[in-house]
User: What shape does this take?
Amino acid sequence: MGTKERIIEAALEEFTEHGYHGAKIRNICSKAKINIAAVNYHFSGKEALYRHVIEYVFQLADPIDEALKISSPELEPEKFLKTMIQYFVKNTSAESPLHRYRFRMMIREMINPSPFFFEILEKQIKPRFMKIRQTIRKIVSEGCSEKEIDSIGILTIAQCIFLFNRPVIDTLTGESNFTQKNSEMIAGKIFNNIKADKKSGRKK
Assistant: This one.
């Protein structure tokens, strides 16, 4: 593994563990077994390195990418959304790169935003939300208002994100690895909540 790759790997761990503000370049250097000059040479500092790491984690295939391989949100919106939720739940595994890096970094961004938070939001997160929102619009009742569609989309994502907090869920349920053991049931419940609006939606 080359120097640049070692820096990225070490930075992934450091930024995931401590966030942008808490991460230390010296820790990254120690993990990568390089000096600060190497970081400055390849990335010109902490800001550029963080941007590169963010771009890297969003290149990882996510639930939307996986769902697109199986179905079309335009032609089969229900199948697409259900598949996406199923992949989302499965990715709560601690071994999943999405769990280890992207979602933990995004949760840290929401709690303690970096200077690039709104850039990340507009470039990486909002387009994914809009894809989910457009799919929900095709599924629910025509009587649902645009605000209701936004609410359904936000609540769907919120439910999925909460599932990444495995220690809390395991403590609440008293069952180790609860989400993974019950992934299909959980995904079905989230999807059925959306389908319920297909029948009950009304103009407000």
Notes: The chain has a mean pLDDT of 89. The radius of gyration is 19 Å. The longest helix spans residues 117-139. The chain has two domains: 3-57, 63-200.
